[in-house]
Design goal:
The complex is a heterodimer of chains A (about 220) and B (about 550). By secondary structure, chain A is an alpha/beta fold. Chain A has helices at about 45-55, 75-85, 105-110, 120-130, 145-160, 175-195; strands at about 5-15, 20-30, 35-40, 60-65, 70, 90, 165-170, 195-200, 215-220, 220-224. In chain B, strands 3, 5, 6, 7, 8, 9, 10, 11, 12, 14 and 15 form an eleven-stranded mixed β-sheet that branches. A two-stranded antiparallel sheet of chain B has the order 1-2. In chain B, strands 4-13 form a two-stranded antiparallel sheet. Classes of the chains: A alpha/beta (about 220), B alpha+beta (about 550). The interface of A and B includes residues 84, 90 and 122 of A. The structure holds adenosine-5'-diphosphate and magnesium ion. Adenosine-5'-diphosphate binds next to strand 2 and helix 1 of chain A.
C-alpha cells in the first residue's frame, strides 16, 4: 500500500549562531493508509515541528515531504493551502475553536472556503455532531461547551472535509481521564471505519496502546 | 358560494393593497418629506431609473408568486389575520419564488412600493415608510400568518421553514462568519459604527454645505432665468464689474430669436443700517416689466403688491439681512449717499457674504450720474424654438460684448467659489476619510491581535489570504452599511439645523452627495482593510500550535 504521507531526511533548524536548534534532525517517516501512528516523546523533543512539516504547515530546512505520492516541496503557499483544505485535518491541544461561531459552524467552516465544495453544510455537520453524541450542542458556542465537548467538536471539524490524514498534536493533554478515553476511542474508530490515517503526537505513555505503531522521538531524532 | 368568496377576496386585496396602503404610504412619506427630511433632495435621474427597475421587478415577483399560489397551491392569498376570506391554498407551494424565501408576495410588494417611492422622488416613502412597513409585515407574518400556515400544513411547513429563509433571500446553508465576528465583539462593533457614521456625517455634511453654498452663489442667475447674459468683453462671471451701453438692449432685442431683453445695474456696495455697515449686492431692475427683479416676496408694506409697485425711495431687501439688523418694514437704510425706505422683504436672495437689495432702475439713473448711459448687464430671454448658439453668436457680432448662456455664466460664477470653498471641502472630506479609515484599521487590527490562534487555525485548515481579505472586507462593509445609515440620518439633522437656524448658510443633501459619500466610504473600507489583511497574510499558521 502506498504511504499517505512520507518524510525523507527531514531537518528543521531554528535560530542561528549560539541559538541554533535543530528541532528535527534527519527524520524519515512514512504513514500508511488506515493506520494510527503514535509519535511519542518528551516535551521539546520536536513532535510539533515534525507534525507541522508532515502537515504542510512548515517547510523543512532540508529533506522533503510527500503527500499521496506527490512532493510538496515545490508547491507555493496557495496550492499548499488547497492541499490542506482537501486532504489534511488537524486537531490541536488547545482545541482552537472559532469563538464567534456555533458548534455546527465550527465543524463546517472549511466548507465556506472558496473553491471547497462539500454539499449541504449544516445537515452534514449536524449529522457528524450527532454521531459523537453532541446532537444537543449544535447551536452552542465554544464558551458554552466543556473541554471534552470542545475537543469532540474540533475532532469532527477535522473530519468534515474527509481528509486522508489527520494530525493530532497532544489532543488529550488538556482533558480529564474520561474525556481522554472518549477522544482516543473516536480517533481509533475513525481510523478503523473511515479510511483515514492518524498521526498522534503525545508525551503521555498511557496512550501507547491505542496506536498501531509507535515512533519515539528524542532531541529531534527518532529512536528505536 | 366559492366564486363569491373569491370575488370578495379579490376586491379586498385590490382595495387594500392597490389603493389604501399605497395611498397612505405616499401620504405619510410626503408628510415626512416636508418636515423631517426637508434637507434631502431626491431627484437624481439614476434614482428614477432605480425606481422603475425596482417597481417592475417587485411587481413581476409579486405576480409570479401569486400565479404560482393559485395554480399549484389551488387557493388564494386573502387570509387576513387568519380569517379565510377567499378559499385558501390546499397545497404548500415551495417552488419558484417560494424556494427563494417564504413570503415572496410580501417582499415583491414592498420592493414595488420602494420603487414607487423612488420614482415619485419621495425620500420619506422610500427610506422611512417602506422600512416601517417591512417591520410591520415581519411582525404580522410572525404572529399571524406563519402560525396559521403551520397549523394548516404541519410538519411539511416546519420543514420548509427550516430550509427556506423568511424574507431575505440568503442561503440558509451559509456560515455568516463576518457577521458572527462582529456580533461576537460588541464593543469593537459599536466603536466601528460610531467611527463610520461620524466619517459619513463629516463627508456628506461638508459636501452638502458646499453644494448649498454653490447654489446660493448663483441664486440670482438661476431664478431670474434669463437665457443669455450679456456683459462687456472680457467679463465672464457675476463677480467682476461690467458696463455695456444702453443701446445694447434695443440692439439685442432686434436680433432674430431674442424675445425680450432688459438691462440691470448690479453693484456691490456698503449698506448703512443704524450706523452699522453691511456688504450688499444692489440690483437695480426695470420695475415696469419686473425683469431682473426679485422672484419671491415675503412681507411688504401695505401699498406694495408686487415688484412693479416700488416707489422712488423704496427698496426691497433680503429677509435674513433684515432679521440680522432687526429691520422692520418702513425703516430707513442708506447707500449711494441716499436714504431709502424698506418696502418689503425678499426670499432666496442670500449669497455668501452678502445679500441682495433691489431698487427701481429709474432711481438709479437719477442718483448715480454715470449709470445713465449704461447697464452693468443685459439679460435676454430667447424665443421658443430659437437656437441658443446662434443667438449668442449673433449677439457677439458686436465686438464689444460678451454673451454667455445661463449655465455657462452660472458655472463661471461658481468657479470663483472653488478658490476658497474647495480647501474647506477637502479638509472636511479628508478628515472624515481619516476618521473612518483609522477606526476600521485599528478595530480590525486589534481584533486580529487578540485572535492570532484562531486565524492561525483557519490558515492551517487551508484558508488563503484572499479568503481572509474577503472576510475582513465583509466585516467592514457591514459596519459601513450601518454606519452610513446613522451618518446620513445625522447629516440630515445637521442640514435641517443649518437651514433653519444659521443665517447665510444653506446645506442640501442630494442623491449625488449620498453617492459620493458612499464611494468615499467604500474606498475607506477597501484601503483600511489592507493593513490588517497584510498582517494576516504574514501570520504563521504555526500559531495554531501555541499553547
Ligand atoms: N519557532 C521556533 N523558534 C525557535 N525554536 C523553536 C521554534 N519552534 C520550536 N523550537 C524549538 O524546537 C524544539 C522542538 O520543539 P517542538 O517541536 O515544539 O517540540 P514538542 O512539540 O515535542 O514539545 C524545542 O527546543 C523548541 O524550543
Ligand atoms: Mg508540542
Amino acid at each position: 500500500m502506498r504511504p499517505v504521507v512520507e518524510g525523507h531526511n527531514l531537518v528543521r533548524v531554528f535560530g542561528r549562531g549560539d541559538k541554533r536548534v535543530a528541532a528535527v534532525d534527519d527524520v524519515s517517516v512514512h504513514v500508511d493508509g488506515d493506520e494510527l501512528v503514535i509519535l511519542m516523546g518528551p516535551s521539546g523533543s520536536g513532535k510539533t515541528t515534525l507534525l507541522a512539516m508532515l502537515g504542510c504547515l512548515l517547510r523543512p530546512s532540508s529533506g522533503h515531504v510527500r503527500v499521496l505520492g506527490k512532493d510538496v516541496g515545490s508547491l507555493s503557499s496557495r496550492p499548499l493551502s488547497r492541499l490542506r483544505s482537501e486532504s489534511i485535518g488537524f486537531v490541536f491541544q488547545g482545541f482552537n475553536l472559532l469563538s464567534a461561531l456555533s458548534a455546527w459552524e465550527n465543524v463546517a467552516v472549511v466548507g465556506s472556503f472558496p473553491g471547497v465544495r462539500l454539499g449541504p453544510l449544516r445537515s452534514r455537520a449536524v449529522e457528524l455532531l450527532e454521531e459523537i453524541g453532541l446532537g444537543h450542542r449544535v447551536e452552542h458556542y465554544p464558551a458554552e461547551l466543556s473541554a471534552g465537548e470542545k475537543q469532540r467538536v474540533a475532532f469532527v471539524r477535522a473530519l468534515f472535509h474527509r481528509p486522508g490524514i489527520l494530525f493530532a498534536d497532544e489532543p488529550t493533554a488538556n482533558l480529564d481521564t474520561d474525556n481522554r478515553r472518549i477522544i482516543l476511542n473516536l480517533l481509533r474508530q475513525a481510523v478503523d471505519e473511515r479510511n483515514l490515517s492518524v498521526v498522534l503526537a503525545t508525551h503521555d505513555e498511557r496512550i501507547e496502546r491505542f496506536g498501531d505503531r509507535v515512533l519515539r522521538i528524542e532531541d529531534g531524532r527518532l529512536v528505536a | 358560494m366559492r366564486v363569491l368568496r373569491i370575488a370578495l377576496g379579490a376586491c379586498i386585496d385590490l382595495a387594500l393593497f392597490g389603493l389604501v396602503v399605497p395611498w397612505a404610504a405616499i401620504k405619510a412619506g410626503r408628510l415626512l418629506d416636508g418636515t423631517l427630511l426637508s434637507g434631502l433632495r431626491f431627484d437624481h435621474p439614476a434614482l428614477d431609473a432605480c425606481g422603475f427597475a425596482l417597481t417592475a421587478s417587485g411587481g413581476a415577483w409579486l405576480a409570479a408568486s401569486w400565479f404560482l399560489l393559485v395554480r399549484q397551491g389551488r387557493g388564494h392569498a386573502t387570509e387576513l389575520f387568519c380569517v379565510e376570506v377567499a378559499p385558501v391554498t390546499e397545497q404548500l407551494v415551495a417552488r419558484g419564488p417560494f424556494a427563494v424565501h417564504r413570503h415572496p408576495m410580501c417582499v415583491g410588494y414592498l420592493v414595488l412600493l420602494l420603487g414607487i417611492g423612488l420614482v415619485i422622488g419621495s425620500p420619506g416613502t422610500a427610506l422611512m415608510v417602506v422600512p416601517a412597513l417591512l417591520l410591520l409585515t415581519y411582525v404580522y407574518l410572525r404572529v399571524f400568518e406563519e402560525p396559521c400556515l403551520e397549523k394548516r400544513f404541519g410538519a411539511a411547513y416546519r420543514h420548509y421553514a427550516e430550509r427556506v429563509p423568511m424574507l431575505l433571500p440568503l442561503r440558509r446553508d451559509r456560515i455568516p462568519m463576518a457577521r458572527r465576528n462582529l456580533l461576537g465583539d460588541p464593543v469593537r462593533f459599536v466603536v466601528n459604527i460610531v467611527g463610520l457614521s461620524l466619517a459619513v456625517l463629516l463627508i456628506s455634511f461638508q459636501i452638502s454645505i458646499y453644494k448649498g453654498t454653490r447654489s446660493q452663489i448663483t441664486t440670482y442667475i438661476d431664478h431670474t432665468a434669463a437665457d443669455v447674459w450679456i456683459m462687456q468683453k472680457g467679463v465672464d462671471d457675476f463677480i467682476a464689474t461690467s458696463s455695456v451701453p444702453r443701446e445694447t438692449v434695443r440692439e439685442v432685442e432686434r436680433i432674430q430669436g431674442v424675445g425680450k431683453a432688459s438691462g440691470i445695474h448690479a453693484v456691490y456696495t456698503l449698506l448703512e443700517i443704524n450706523k452699522e455697515k453691511s456688504r450688499v449686492y444692489v440690483v437695480a431692475y426695470d420695475a415696469r416689466s419686473g425683469r431682473g427683479g426679485p422672484w419671491k416676496l415675503g412681507d411688504t408694506l401695505p401699498r406694495i403688491h408686487g415688484i412693479h409697485d416700488l416707489e422712488a425711495d423704496q427698496v426691497l431687501l433680503d429677509r435674513n439681512l433684515a432679521g440680522r439688523h432687526h429691520l422692520e418694514l418702513g425703516d430707513r437704510v442708506s447707500f449711494f449717499g441716499r436714504s431709502f425706505t424698506v418696502a418689503g422683504f425678499t426670499l432666496e436672495t442670500m449669497s455668501i457674504g452678502s445679500q441682495y437689495v433691489f431698487l427701481n432702475r429709474e432711481v438709479m439713473d437719477r442718483i448715480v450720474p454715470g449709470s445713465r448711459h449704461s447697464f452693468t448687464h443685459v439679460l435676454a430671454w430667447i424665443e421658443k424654438g430659437a437656437d441658443m448658439g446662434t443667438v449668442v453668436r449673433r449677439i457677439e457680432e458686436n465686438r464689444a460684448l460678451n454673451a454667455l448662456t445661463r449655465s455657462e455664466f452660472a458655472a463661471n460664477t461658481r468657479g470663483f467659489l472653488g478658490v476658497f470653498m474647495l480647501p474647506l471641502l477637502a479638509g472636511g472630506v479628508i478628515m472624515g476619510f481619516l476618521v473612518g479609515s483609522v477606526t476600521i484599521g485599528i478595530t480590525l487590527y486589534t481584533s486580529i491581535l487578540e485572535r492570532f490562534k484562531e486565524y492561525g487555525t483557519l490558515k492551517a485548515m487551508g484558508a488563503t489570504g484572499l479568503y481572509l481579505y474577503g472576510l475582513l472586507l465583509r466585516q467592514s462593509l457591514i459596519s459601513l452599511l450601518i454606519g452610513a445609515f446613522a451618518g446620513f440620518a445625522l447629516s440630515l439633522l445637521a442640514n435641517h439645523f443649518i437651514n433653519l437656524r444659521v443665517p447665510g448658510m444653506t446645506a442640501e443633501l442630494d442623491a449625488g452627495t449620498a453617492a459620493q459619500t458612499v464611494i468615499a466610504g467604500l474606498a475607506m473600507v477597501v484601503l483600511s482593510t489592507g493593513l490588517p489583511t497584510w498582517r494576516l497574510i504574514r501570520l504563521d499558521p504555526m500559531e495554531a500550535f501555541r499553547t
